[in-house]
């Protein structure tokens, strides 16, 4: 999943990004995607941990909060594919600001949630319940991994752009498309091999390549790359959701726990509310009066925090 199905989805999200809308609202998107995901992770995680502590939930470690935080990280991965499909409908005439916020948060949130999940998982030790120092180490590790991953993605993106600009690859459109695809997997594999987040590196790699390298491609390769990456992303996305649906019939729900499901659902709603509404208030303090995020839009953002393929894959 993480090496063959997820990279095309993440890269295409970065490569086809509406950069103007994304970077105009980058402050609010970063608040929601980074700080909001961290808030949601800890809120959901500790609600589930305390539910286990009082005996309401049986299948979460009631002595070590790290297991609950692992669940909080994976369930905080927002995957609003259905919401984006609705918001992207031209007939609905959706506010471009709302679309930019939902889309921007979703693509960044996936990478951050996966990074948090992997970081928590490295520190999880079922045999000990002393995690006072581990929480601080987890946050520091997450910040370091995120920053270095972005540097790797941007660096390799700029390197690929320089190579395409100073060579005669424009004469070979098939080679251009193939080499660009190889650079994508090189970025992902490089980040993963040195212990960083390949997903976060790949997303920013896609943004850089789209912004700087698109002008270096021949007309044929320019059209082909957009179509090829879009096709790959659609195909892998479909495979992921088919796999999720098959889980119902292949025993994926044999350990179904209704109580835990209800607790987790309520925790997700609370975590999302604590994430969206205060951060919207903070974001509005730094925005122009004409560009404030209205209260109704905040409610839609709260509702748009659907969980899907990423959370499912991490749990598996």
Automatic annotation (TrEMBL):
GO terms for biological process: regulation of intracellular pH; sodium ion import across plasma membrane. It is a multi-pass membrane protein. It holds the Pfam family Na_H_Exchanger. GO terms for molecular function: potassium:proton antiporter activity; sodium:proton antiporter activity. The chain crosses the membrane at residues 29-56, 133-158, 178-207, 228-246, 258-285, 297-315. Its main location: membrane. One of its GO terms (cellular component) is plasma membrane. Residues 1-315 form the Cation/H+ exchanger transmembrane domain. It is found in: Membrane. Keywords: Antiport, Ion transport, Membrane, Sodium, Sodium transport, Transmembrane, Transmembrane helix, Transport. Belongs to the monovalent cation:proton antiporter 1 (CPA1) transporter (TC 2.A.36) family. This is Sodium/hydrogen exchanger. It comes from Fragilariopsis cylindrus CCMP1102.
């Amino acid at each position: 999943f993480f090496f063959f199905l997820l990279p095309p989805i993440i890269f295409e999200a970065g490569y086809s990004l509406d950069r103007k809308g994304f970077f105009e609202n980058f402050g609010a998107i970063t608040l929601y995607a980074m700080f909001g995901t961290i808030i949601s992770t800890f809120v959901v995680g500790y609600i589930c941990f305390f539910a286990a502590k009082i005996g309401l939930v049986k299948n979460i470690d009631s002595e070590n909060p790290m297991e609950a935080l692992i669940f909080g990280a994976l369930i905080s991965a927002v995957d609003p594919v259905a919401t984006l499909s609705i918001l992207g409908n031209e007939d609905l005439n959706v506010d471009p600001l709302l679309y930019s916020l939902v889309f921007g948060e979703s693509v960044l949130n996936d990478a951050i949630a996966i990074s948090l999940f992997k970081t928590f998982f490295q520190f999880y030790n079922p045999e000990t319940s002393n995690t006072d120092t581990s929480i601080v180490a987890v946050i520091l590790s997450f910040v370091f991994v995120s920053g270095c991953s972005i540097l790797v993605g941007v660096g390799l993106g700029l390197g690929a752009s320089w190579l395409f600009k100073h060579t005669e690859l424009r004469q070979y459109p098939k080679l251009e498309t193939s080499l660009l695809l190889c650079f994508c997997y090189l970025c992902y594999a490089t980040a993963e091999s040195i212990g960083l987040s390949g997903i976060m590196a790949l997303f920013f790699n896609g943004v850089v390549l789209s912004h700087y390298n698109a002008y270096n491609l021949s007309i044929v390769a320019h059209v082909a790359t957009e179509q090829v990456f879009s096709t790959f992303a659609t195909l892998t996305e479909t495979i992921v959701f088919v796999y999720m649906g098959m889980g119902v019939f292949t025993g994926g729900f044999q350990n179904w726990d209704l109580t835990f499901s209800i607790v987790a659902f309520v925790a997700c709603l609370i975590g999302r509310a604590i994430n969206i509404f205060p951060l919207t208030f903070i974001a509005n303090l730094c925005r122009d009066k004409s560009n404030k995020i209205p209260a109704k839009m905040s409610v839609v953002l709260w509702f748009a925090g659907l969980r899907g393929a990423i959370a499912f894959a991490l749990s598996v």
